[in-house]
Amino acid sequence: MIDANTLKKETEKRLTFAIISHPDAGKTTITEKLLLFGGAIHTAGAVKSSKNTKATTSDFMKMEQERGISISTSVMGFDYGGRRFNLLDTPGHADFSEDTYRGLSAVDSSLMVIDSVKGVEERTRQLCAVCKMRKTPIVTFVNKLDREGKEPIELLDEIEKELAITVTPLTWPIGQGKDFKGVYHVADKTLHLFKGGQTKLPVEVIDIPSIMSDELDSYVGSTFAAKLREEVEMISAVYPPFELDSYLAGTVSPVCFGSALNNFGVGELLDTLIKIAPSPLIKEADTRVVHPDEEQFSGFVFKIHANMNPRHHDRIAFLRVCSGVFERNKLYKHVRSGKTFRSSNPTAFMSQDREIIDQAWPGDIIGLHDTGNLKIGDTLTEGEDIQFKGIPNFAPQIFRTILNADPLKEKQFHKGLNQLAEEGVIQIFTKLHQPNVRILGVVGQLQLEVLQSRLETEYNAECRYEPIDVSLARWINCEDKKKLKAFVTANERKILQDVAGNYVFITDSAWALNRIQELNKEISFYITSEMRN
Ligand code: G4P
């Protein structure tokens, strides 16, 4: 029996978050520096960037195999400042897929990294949209201030406009590039001085009596001091002061500036997260909301990692604990099948190691060995029939017709295709007017190659793709089922069905989608299978 106080204490300690960014903005560098500051690793270079594997499928498969061995990079746990950090990896590189989107269902907050030279980029836009849909609180880190980048004001403007989120600067940079002097902490009224090529921790922090005092000039020179005074006055007028509630509601993102490569700003970022980032939040299920400090355990699977031994289809399912305590060897209910589920070797991911654990608390991510019973979105409970929301499929951007290339391997082909779809590698749709035709949908091009390669190596099956003139898909619904049916019948050739039987409208351009939406105002179009935008 777990006492309520321990549960509350362990829950409040947890801080489960993900870093979202466009490739090359500095996610790997920041992850590594967070782990270094957090004392979880002791040498740089321990966190591998996957960006070099952009090129080919074989590289990707090799990377996946390596990951099979050191799967711990998927979640990096460490203790710092009295809290347990669970940092979830959201692949942003070659292996970009729905997995990345879904990983965000398992976190309570995000850290968004923006390259000060490049500003807001495509992948950040996509990931930020998913966070906004879930109202996930976001802290923004503007990186690479040691390089000549955009003006900070211009950057914040761009973030607000492009990501439709309000920002509030917690720190303000003084100069940039070779003139980068450090940052001024707006609320603390402290000066954090930057020394080029900094390797020592922490950075030098100076309390200055007032931004108007001459002391400021003595540290950064009078030109930069004058510019800082002017800019701080301006930002105080333009941006709202930091308010915890609006950050937690996901409407305002506090912004810090720094240079991860130079160890500048990352320690402060960690301290900011300790202070403001939420403990495990309430999760929405189909019948009710689930509070983390409820005594009864509940959790959901958000990712399946295939085993790299091609002849055995055992896998690791990643489960996020939502409430109560998960215990090793205890019998739980697998809600979808109604069967019992027991794990004798649940795995936790601390820093770079995996270890078998006896207990896991709300906010924790654990790995469960599984031989094919668990699917993405599945719920485990102590008996209650609930289904967590927020683990949907996302509208794919790339579509192909998939055909079995070897008629003698029909069975293997279907088995492989279905299992890999369950694992979340691809989505399968059928055409309404040709139910035997299978259409694949993916978010990243590489998933197509991965599917082909895995069908061959793991299922001894071969497939062939044919192009299809579709680049946009939206799940559709209408309260009036007759109207939905009429729309589906009228647009039969542009309708697919997903595995759950939901209707999906497909088209080849944003213009065409807009037009059909204009003409059919009673129909709702959604980017996720959960019918949320
Ligand atoms: P990613 O995971 O988001 O893709 O980015 P990653 O950390 O791998 O960083 C991308 C590149 O940006 C790396 O350089 C990295 O060293 C550099 N970088 C990260 N933070 C900073 C910073 O604060 N200032 C500057 N100037 N550069 C930064 P690279 O040349 O691509 O790789 P490497 O050879 O340095 O590893």
Automatic annotation (TrEMBL):
Start and end residues of each Tr-type G domain: 12-281
Q: Known InterPro entries for this protein?
A: EF-G-like_DII, EFG_III/V, G_TR_CS, P-loop_NTPase, PrfC, RF3_C, RF3_dom_3_sf, RF3_GTP-bd
Annotated SUPFAM superfamilies: EF-G C-terminal domain-like, P-loop containing nucleoside triphosphate hydrolases, Translation proteins
The UniProt entry's GO biological process terms, in alphabetical order, are: regulation of translational termination
Specify which residues bind GTP according to the UniProt entry for this protein: 21-28, 89-93, 143-146
Task: Tell me which domain of life the UniProt entry assigns to the organism this sequence originates from.
Answer: Bacteria
Q: Where in the cell is it found?
A: Cytoplasm
The record's GO CC annotations read: cytosol
Alphabetic keyword roster? Cytoplasm, GTP-binding, Nucleotide-binding, Protein biosynthesis
Q: Which Gene3D superfamilies match?
A: P-loop containing nucleotide triphosphate hydrolases (3.40.50.300), Peptide chain release factor 3, domain III (3.30.70.3280), Translation factors (2.40.30.10)
What CDD domains would the database entry show?
RF3 (cd04169), RF3_II (cd03689)
Family indicated by similarity: Belongs to the TRAFAC class translation factor GTPase superfamily. Classic translation factor GTPase family. PrfC subfamily.
> Mind telling me which PANTHER family this protein's record contains?
PEPTIDE CHAIN RELEASE FACTOR RF3
- State what this protein does: Increases the formation of ribosomal termination complexes and stimulates activities of RF-1 and RF-2. It binds guanine nucleotides and has strong preference for UGA stop codons. It may interact directly with the ribosome. The stimulation of RF-1 and RF-2 is significantly reduced by GTP and GDP, but not by GMP.
Designated name of the protein: Peptide chain release factor 3
